[in-house]
Design goal:
Length: about 240
Amino acid sequence: MKSAYKLELIGVNPAERERITLPKLEEEQTEIFTEQELDDLLQALEDEPLMFRLLIHMALNTGCRRGELMGLKWSDIDFTTGVLTISRSNYKLTGDKEVRSKSTKTGKSRRIMLPAYCISMLKCYRAEQTGLRLRLGDAWHGDDWIFIQADGKPMYPTTPTQWFSKFQKRNDLPHRKLHALRHTSATLLLSNGTNIKNVAARLGHTQLKTTNRYVHAVEQAERQAANTLELLLGGNRKTG
């Protein structure tokens, strides 16, 4: 419209900012686990299969989106340096039986350093998966995927969501979306002093304003903490 107006193909530009009133978007709620909720979740997680335990810990340690987690391959991990490379995201179209891969949301790969305990979990799970592969023999149809179906094919992207919902219900945990693990990862890093640019890089954000939403969550948690201490310690005590 702007080009057409400049070329005098139209008399006015109907798309000018002054002519349009855009609806006000409601601020998206950032759902995170509280410290107690996260502690209860991790405690209940200890009784689950290793693959799903690893999945949740990877989500918390990397802040990856669901599709990015499903797109991870063993070749993406450097077990010597502890660095994970995220370069693809898996998805499945409605009605399609096969899982497909695409580049990440930004189209760029990113590298994340994993903590030592997470590397240890990956090694244990790789040994477990290797044993499964040997037992299945010709029935194995995998291709280096970390999170898999029973025959080695990549896990459906909907499976973690469905499992996580059932897991929370089974353990009487408050329901949170799987994506809340990504929000919680960012909030934990920021509340413990990690630079916001580093957090943005881990999450794959191209703009800091996207990451700023977690700063607000941290500030809100701090206000709640201060109010709690006021109730517990303040009372009617003298201030001078």
